[in-house]
Design a protein that fits this description.
2 copies of one chain form a homodimer.
Chain A (H helix, E strand, L loop, with lengths): L6 H17 L6 H12 L4 E2 H10 L6 H13 L3 E4 L7 E4 L7 E5 L5 E4 L3 H12 L3 E12 L29
Parallel strand pairs in A: 4-6
Antiparallel strand pairs in A: 1-3, 2-3, 4-5
Chain A binds a DNA duplex (25 and 25 nucleotides) through helix 2 and helix 4.
DNA sequence: ATCCCTGCAAAGGGTTTGCAGACGC
DNA sequence: GCGTCTGCAAACCCTTTGCAGGGAT
């Protein structure tokens, strides 16, 4: 009657982070661990500002510069993945204990869905071999229209006028 | 002893563009066709500024605003594809008469290679069906290390200090 | 005590926008 | 002639950077 505690991933991540900082001779500051914790307590995707505001709302004092800096470190040790979902706004997502997956994005409402297909890995291996390329990771995104009844901006194909329709949305990743 | 004229794609593209502008009741300005021509005479990928400078160098008077505006229109009618190769700098590429392909990017020297694997299309179709998602297009990028002898920045894995190593390169797409 | 890391604010760089004049229709 | 498109420059927004003070080692 009980689920696996969501803390377990956080705990593992914390240990991995600790080891990484040690190995690289980086300092184990409280800010770095607080940011890691905040990320691993979140679901889905987020951008820098969402993370920053979220921590501010919990009265945790951090600066944007530190958030940026720490995210770089976390991406480097593979605890966080950075995405560029077609906008000029980096999106992040925890990656430890999260099964390998790729994304579908609705170009109307910007909803993000996930899927997993092992053939992607096969392609990656084969192409890497053929082109003598040591592939470390990949990004696969399908863009299209979702089937939600309440999908916003449905059929707004008119990007002729300089409008904010498809670009100015603050929270693209639901 | 003669190759297929590179103009043929340009001619087709021009006609498609013409029809599109007509259908959308947009104006057929000389700037729009000049930009289309410049793009279809280029090879590989480019960013907005490269295109802008390239036209300036040929003494063709255009403004950046018009380049941005026209690229939007061209992307909308599928004559040009827009990429976000992990940086905050949009890259573009002509897409008519160019076989469908995906990309490998060297994280050291930023060299871009292309490959084509039909299985990607299969995955796209299957995932779209399963998740009731009308997939229009996709982006698949493999990141890794190329095998070139003269690959720059090889092994610069230290992104700890705030450096420009992996980010500040001006011409990432060779 | 050292010097890396944080926080702040300013700078940077790509993209968007407002406005006036030009020109396709 | 009307209304859209262009060109210019300023505004915008995310991200990076410089610097001084603070805290991890």
């Amino acid at each position: 009657m009980q689920q696996a505690p969501p803390q377990s991933n956080l705990e593992s991540a914390r240990m991995i982070f600790m080891a990484y900082l040690e190995r690289k001779s980086l300092r184990k500051t409280p800010e770095r661990f607080a940011i890691l914790e905040e990320i691993y307590n979140r679901a889905d995707h987020f951008d820098v500002d969402e993370l920053y505001v979220s921590m501010k709302n919990k009265n945790y004092q951090v600066s944007r510069a530190t958030v940026y800096n720490t995210l770089d470190v976390l991406v480097d040790c593979d605890l966080v993945t950075k995405h560029q979902f077609g906008k000029n706004l980096a999106q992040y997502e925890k990656s430890y204990g999260y099964r390998q997956h790729d994304h579908l994005i609705c170009t109307d409402c910007h909803k993000v869905m996930e899927f997993c297909d092992p053939r992607v890995q096969n392609i990656q291996n084969m192409v890497g071999d053929m082109l003598k390329f040591n592939v470390m990771h990949h990004s696969l995104i399908f863009y299209g229209a979702c089937a939600r009844d309440n999908c916003e901006n449905r059929g707004s194909t008119d990007r002729q006028t300089r409008s904010k329709d498809a670009q100015g949305v603050q929270n693209p990743v639901g």
